[in-house]
Amino acid sequence: MSDDLDDIQAIFFEECAEGLTTAETGLSAMNAGDVSAGVIAGVFRAVHSIKGGAGAFGHAALTAFSHRFENVLD
Amino acid sequence: MSKTILTVDDSASMRMLLKASLTAQGFTIEAANDGRHGLERMHEVKPDLLITDINMPEMDGFELIEAVRAVPEFRGLPILVLSTEFSDEKKARARGAGATGWITKPFDAAKLGTAIRRVCP
Fold it and tell me: To probe the interface with B, which of A3, A4, A8 has the most B CB atoms within 10 Å?
């Protein structure tokens, strides 16, 4: 399954890039004063998704970082 | 006969990982990318087990479980939550909505298989 796993991990990295874009957009909106529940939830979901994949693929540092990031948003 | 499992998760890589892990253990896997899509797929697939994430756009896992349990033919269906969340408050909320069990991500494929066979013999 290692070839499969590499392919799946490549998709996870693409998801990370999308998630970071989503988080950046949301954080920029928050920085501009929009702290609505929807904006915060969008950033949270993006970071949460990165945490889930990071754990699945064994990226401990990324898991720990995204967990702390989540706690700040929670 | 192979058990059919519907997995609901907004992450494509997580759906693929689940499919690869569980297909290798003899299960038939169908997938949906959020709660709303999951509810539609429930009626098409009529699975033996539902595995759902919690944090999803459109309809989250709690709402999906409540919606599934509201359908008479799915009242006895085993439902496992698979989430990075692990708070007692969220687990209690899932149980209240009708979840059968809770497994925390990252999951161990063999242990997930064991949990599935326990709730879906």
Answer: A8
- Quote the pTM value: 0.90
A7-34, pLDDT tens digit by residue? 999 999 999 999 999 999 999 999 999 9
Contact B14 A4 (CB under 8 A): no
| Inter-chain residue contact A53 with B14, CB threshold 8 Å | yes
Q: Which amino acid is at A62?
A: L
Long-range contacts at A20-28 (CB < 8 A, ≥ 24 apart)? A20/A46, A20/A50, A22/A46, A23/A47
Give B4-119's CATH code, choosing from 3.40.50.2300, 3.30.450.20, 3.40.50.1980, 3.40.980.20.
3.40.50.2300
Q: Where are the domains of chain A?
A: 2-73
Identify the CATH assignment for A2-73 out of 1.10.287.1700, 1.20.120.160, 3.20.20.370, 1.10.10.60: 1.20.120.160
Burial of B40 (0-12, 13-18, 19+ CB in 10 A): exposed
Which of B16, B24, B106 has the CB atom closest to A11's CB atom? B16
Q: Do B14 and A56 touch (CB under 8 A)?
A: yes
